[in-house]
Amino acid sequence: MKKMVVGIGLSTLLLTSLVTTNETMVAPLNVSAATLSTFKDVSPNYYAFKEITYLVEKGVISGFLDGTFKPEQEVTRGQFSIMISKALDLKKSASYFKDVPKTSATYDGVGKAYTAGIVKGYTDGNFKPNQGITRADLSVMLDRALQTKGIYSETARLSYNDHGSIPAYAYESVQRMTNYKIMGAYKNNRFESAVIGTRAETAIAIYNLLKVGTPSIDDKPSIDDKPSIDDKPSIDDKPSIDDKPINPPGSGGIITQPEKSWKDMNIEELANKYGKQEIVTFGNSIKTTNLWENYVQYEQKWGVSPEEFLSSWVGSQDQNYTAYYPNYEVISFNGKPFKTSVLYSGDIAQFDDSILPEYTKNEGEFLVDMKTTTKNGAIYYHNDIKIFSMSSVPYKKDNDFMVDVESLFGSILDISKTNDVLILKGKNILEVKANSNKAKLNGSEVTLSIIPEIKDGKLMGPVNEISKLIGLHTRSYENIPFQNNKGVQRIDISNFVLPGDYR
């Protein structure tokens, strides 16, 4: 029997309407196998029989006219959009993608899923509805779908044999899918991020998604759970007069306080109900923004719901990168790097996405993201992000950039001063001073190619040369193709090997 897997790709689905509920999820998952109209190719012993049964009964998916379900056929982006929009009973919305016209069978589902922030399009204005979805991309889409049900932020430590090959943009989503048991190993304890799965695998994933926060079939009381005669309360179990609830005259029973409408919530109440929404951005300066402050000031007054506001805002970040990078960058969203947050769609077409900074892979590693146009920067660790600020903006001198040595390197290394000498303790120990090209490396004299100098009372030194001497690695990013940028716009510094310069 095939092991339970989750993934999606290419096929044609016949999809029916979902039974509408009062919540953004389907009814409790109580599946009776006997209710399934038998498919020729799905026997009761099939590994996804229960999940397929449930989704068929709820109108999320259906079989083909020849009496088959075709469980091993792949599912496309368009078909997944239809399935997830029906499963979550998403609100009706239009689709504006060039390749999803109103005549398309996927038009309604794509519009709903896009508006809900579950799926995203490409920068060329297309959606590519017939393209298969890898397990990595599926994890991201299901993660976004999960957040429409509530706040589900817990992650699991991944133990898959191939966890190191999971794309960075999907890593946190895979952690969440694993934690909430929505997705699991494909086979041999491998996640297999690049695999495009099947209709059966997709049915399992959506079924598991719907189970989160919903009573499962195992929660149904059996006939043996009925109370026996011995379970009846005795006369001594009756509540005393002191145990009776005291209600105001005419209340007719216990008073239940109605839930406050989002229209009347303040910033703190919105954060408590919908979760913290804090973004740290990188431009001419580093700015921390509480999105609920913006929401209360504008969108709430215009009648926009919190869900609509967040969906619209999250969906706009790729466009911001397309228009403004590297002059605009998200350092973190809710404490996570942009590339591993829900903001990242996984496809910014204009450049290699590998240049986007993210958590380092191993404990003890760090990556400094320094722009050459601002005095602020960010340091990415294995599970943390910190901000640093220099006294002045870096400036070019000869073939290097001069930086505030104490502020920059003091953020990642142990630095001390002796008289006019600055001592940097990395893998090697380097002693430098202003207005002299003579320095000491592990006690031995070396000659610097660029002489350190004083600016605004701070020692400025060549960043690439100093990094190399103390045992660090650098990578320069030049001519990033946004805004007609020319020259080096960004320099990374790390204590692990980096790829070659980006040009």
Share of helical residues? 10-25%
What fraction strand? 15-25%
Model regions low in confidence, pLDDT < 50 over at least 5 residues: 1-37, 217-256
Structural class: alpha+beta
Work out the number of β strands: 18
Rg estimate, integer Å: 28 Å
Number of H/I helices: 12
The geometry reads as elongated
Distance between the termini: 50 Å
Number of domains: 3
Largest β sheet strand count, sense and barrel closure: 5 strands, antiparallel
Q: Widest sheet: strand order? A: 7-6-5-18-17
Average pLDDT works out at 80
Summarize the helix and strand pattern as letters: HHHHHHHEEHHHEEEEEEEHEEEEEEEHEE
What features would you describe in this structure?
The chain is an alpha+beta fold and 503 residues long. It folds into three domains: 33-211, no CATH class; 262-355, no CATH class; 367-494, Copper Amine Oxidase, Chain A, domain 1 (2-Layer Sandwich). It is 22% helix and 17% strand. The chain has twelve helices and 18 strands. It has helices at residues 49-57, 77-87, 107-115, 135-147, 168-179, 199-211, 267-274, 291-297, 306-314, 317-324, 405-409, 463-469, and strands at residues 278-282, 286-290, 329-333, 336-337, 367-371, 376-380, 385-389, 395-397, 400-404, 414-418, 421-425, 429-433, 438-441, 444-447, 453-455, 458-462, 473-478, 488-494. Strands 7-6-5-18-17 form a five-stranded antiparallel β-sheet, with helices on one face. A five-stranded antiparallel β-sheet has the order 10-11-12-13-14, with no helix packed on it. A hairpin with a 3-residue loop joins strand 1 and strand 2 (286-290).
